[in-house]
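$ run holo --ligand "FE2/S2 (inorganic) cluster" --emit tokens
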Amino acid sequence: MTQATKVTRTMTGPMPVKILVALKVNGQSRQLMLSPWTTLLDALRDHLDLTGTKKGCDHGQCGACTVLVDGRRINSCLTIAVMKDGANVTTIEGLAKEGVLHPLQQAFIAHDAFQCGYCTPGQICSAAGLIAEGKAKSVPDIRELMSGNICRCGAYPNIVAAIKQVMDAVGDKS
Ligand code: FES
Ligand code: FES
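-- output --
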């Protein structure tokens, strides 16, 4: 097939239909009609107005878009929403419970772990996933396993201190 033929077929082919996608987002059932190529990040921000999750690079390189899907941290910019039909999604808006901040949110404030705050929702969601994974045992582990979350303000020492505090508190309880 020539390049021209390919282009013609693309331009004259039928438009893809929208697809019904059911998600549970922060405990609420949501149904969305989405294009097949809509990312989870765009579904959250543009269709559900949950703009706490940030779009940094949109290429899986910065971690600003990190959310929890069925308890696991993922880059929502690399995730096609229709592939998560039926999933439980937790964003930064869903971490506080009944007006009480999540321990990681409290720790980030206590340790002054942000400057501009753009990376912070992704950092906190990623840290929640990290602690649930139970693999990090030390500060170097935290640094390594949080390396997918970039902070352009360089707040790393405070971010690590905040995560360590919560990780230790969870460890003390278990
Ligand atoms: S916006 Fe998803 S990794 Fe950067
Ligand atoms: S606090 Fe500004 S990018 Fe992290």
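-- notes --
The longest strand covers residues 19-25.
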